[in-house]
Queue: 4 jobs
Job 1
Amino acid sequence: MEPTSILAIYILFWVTAAFIVLPIGIRNHHETGIEMVRGQADGAPVNFRPVRILLLTTLLATAAFGLFYLNYANGWITLDTIDIFNSRARLG
């Protein structure tokens, strides 16, 4: 696999992991009982910690990409193993 392909796929894993990690542990003002600032949105987080989110996102993306790359290198799961309807044989 080319290094540019590895980088592109890792970035896709990272962005997907960011959307998974973003809502974890976030609480709004109604849940914590803290008074809102005038003009603030109702769902604005009280305890937003971007460094924690970046760290968790990077850990999750690296683990998922590692599994992806190991599967790519070793061929554990291929298109033939997940083709339960035998559609590849019918197309060829």
Job 2
Amino acid sequence: MTEQGDEQHEFDLGWAAEAEHKEPSARARMLAARWRENPPDPVPFRPDPGPAAPRGSSWRSAALVLGCVAAVILLLGYIQTRSPY
């Protein structure tokens, strides 16, 4: 085919967007058929949150982080003093 023929057969998105009737997707058709026979239960917009999981104390996690930082600083200082340069 010539280039002119390819341009004529190229899909035009503007033409498709302006279509009067738009067919639903396969998933939408499947869900509509399923819900006709067995409609879904109503779901609240924001369901009640479940019980909160117990959390560790924040001072323990802060102490752990600060301890790790101090250990890295001490290790780097030790390595620096041991190097001949």
Job 3
Amino acid sequence: MEITRSEGGGECTQVEPPSAWMRFWSRRIAGTANEDRIEVSCRGDRWTIAVADGAGGLAGGAAAARSAAIAMVALGAEMELDPDGWCQRLRELDRELEVDRRCGETTLVVVQVSDGELWGASVGDSGALLVGPGGLVELTAAQRRKPLVGSGSCTPVAIGRRALSGRLLVATDGLLKYAPLTTINALARSGDLREAVEALILAVTLPSGNLQDDVAVVLGEHVG
């Protein structure tokens, strides 16, 4: 059994890979306060990826994002939930964060990957996409942008179970809002995972070297 977690960024790979070996590369960069969070966990051949973006302008956004992402990957390491199960857990988390005085509100995308398939749930404008030679699939196209997790009234939308074909990209709106989908599709498929992540971040970097918003990106693919 192997569990790997990365909040700040870097590579996550099984040390002793099972048949469904995967590799991920993640990076999180501050535009201002850096209220984005990344968490990735693995147990056996089941991966759980969570990306959250704390609501700016509200107290406790960063704390909400951190709590949400950590809670989701910890749960995913313990068990496999179906899409409806993830929606139910996001609703429960919504109520838990609402009564936690330390926490504000946050977006949240959680994706599980196992046996060549992926599924999950989302709230807000962070997103999950599949990129490959056949084009780009927006897994979170139907999600509800508001209310957010922590409001007490969020409406999670399921990511239906489907084959993992190509690369899986999970990111906050610091990338998705400022880069066209055609650019994301091309760059996410270019080079190795680390090179692709760096290219995506460069695509939303201003000439001054600054970012318009915090950016969190996780990119993963099957190995071998």
Job 4
Amino acid sequence: MATADATPADITQTIAALRAIDTLRADFVQTDVNGGRMTGTLTMKRPGRIRFQYQPGVPLLIVSDGAALTMIDYEVRQVQRWPIRNSPLGALLDPNKDVARFARLNPTGRSDLISMAVRDPGHPEYGTLTLLMVRKASAPGGLELDSWITTDAQSRRTMVRLLNPQHGVVVNDSAFRWTDPRPQSHRAG
């Protein structure tokens, strides 16, 4: 069972399992603080690339190309970008982030579940990422990423739960490209 006074070895094992994920494809359910739910497909490829393709009818796309996390809202033709390191997802995506320095394990009451919170106290504006991992021998590193909770600087929580995860699938780099909805004159490189 994970405890609040977990050892550095426990944190090291959890980080190693995250870094052992080469590629991942899964369905997801995203739940916001008000209980609103959206579904979609998550695609991840190391280092640093992720794509949240939302259900039909949701005009959002979130993509990381390895350097920046980009949120595209096709309905209002808006694009927002953040360096991965400035996002709560940096703990999951940024291969250079010293996760162990900012991580702590939370008690779960279950021997098969590990909860690891990552928060940079020097940058509270980046928020907190709490990763929930289930012990599973067939998963990379023996731990399967089950879900995560992001808590932003305003304490708004969003939970993403993964369903039907597939590890080691072929993922083309084109999965991390997107179509810019803004007029040509407003594009940022």
